[in-house]
Amino acid sequence: MFRLLAFALRIRVTLVYCTLAVAGTVALGQIGPHDRWHVLHAASTNLHNLTDGHLATLVTSVFLTEGRVNWLWLAAVALLFAVAEWVSGWRRFLLTFSAGHVGATALVAVGLLIGIHVDWLADSLAMAVDVGVSYAAAAVAGSMIRYLPMPWRVGWAALWIGVVAVSGISDPSFSAVGHAIALSIGFGLGAVYLHRDVPTLSRKAIDATSGDRVQPSPQLSTL
C-alpha cells in the first residue's frame, strides 16, 4: 500500500492530468455534435479566443481532444508523461509541459496573426479548433535528452525530429509548425537541465571514485 502511494506521489502531475483528460473526453462523448462543436471552439487556443483575452483556453484546451478519440495515443502520452515525471521530478516535468504547450501556442498565434494580417494565410484560420496535449508531449519528449546517455541522445533527438518532419510533410498546417516549436523548446530545456546538473553529476562521480580508493582492506577493518 505504501509503495503504491509512493509511486502515485512520484507521478502525481501525470495522474491528475490523465484523470482530467479522460473525464473531459468522456464528457464530450456524452453530448451531441452541435454542443461538442461549441465546447471545442470555446476551449480552443485559436487566434480569435486568444486575442479576445480568453487566456483560460491555455488550460482548458490541453484536456480535450478534437474528433474521434484515439485511446492508444492517449495511453502512449500517459506513459511518456509518467516516465518523464518519474526521472525528472514533478517540478521539471510541469515546467516542461507548460513551456511546451504555452510557448508553442503563443508563437503559433503570433505567426498566424502576422500571416493573416499580410494576407499570406486565410482569415478562417483565426477560428480553427486547436485543442490537445500534443505540443506539451513534444516538449516533454524533447527534454528527455537530459536523462539519456550520450549515444542514445542523438538517436532520440533524430527519432523525434523525424516524427515531427514526417507529420508536417504529410499534413502541413500550423499545428505541424507548433509541434516543431514545442520539440525545440523541449530540446532547449533538456540542454539547460543537463548544464545545471553537470556539477552534481561530476560531484557524484568524484565521490564514488574517492570511495573506491579509500575502501579499507580486510586486514585494516579487523583492527
Question: Mind explaining what this structure looks like?
Answer:
Helix 6 packs parallel to helix 8 and helix 9 runs antiparallel to helix 10. The chain is globular, with a radius of gyration of 22 Å. The protein has 223 residues and is mainly α.
What do the pLDDT scores average to? 88
- Biggest sheet, open or closed, and with what strands and sense? none
* Unreliable residue runs: 216-223
The radius of gyration over CA amounts to 22 Å
| Oligomeric form | single chain
List SSEs in N-to-C order: HHHHHHHHHHH
How would you summarize this macromolecular structure in one to three sentences?
By secondary structure, this protein is mainly α. It is built from 11 helices and no strands.
Q: Which descriptors apply to this entry?
A:
223 residues; mainly alpha; 75% helix; globular; disordered C terminus
Write the layout of secondary structure elements.
Layout: H1 2-10, H2 12-29, H3 33-43, H4 47-51, H5 57-60, H6 71-88, H7 90-117, H8 134-143, H9 150-170, H10 174-213, H11 218-221
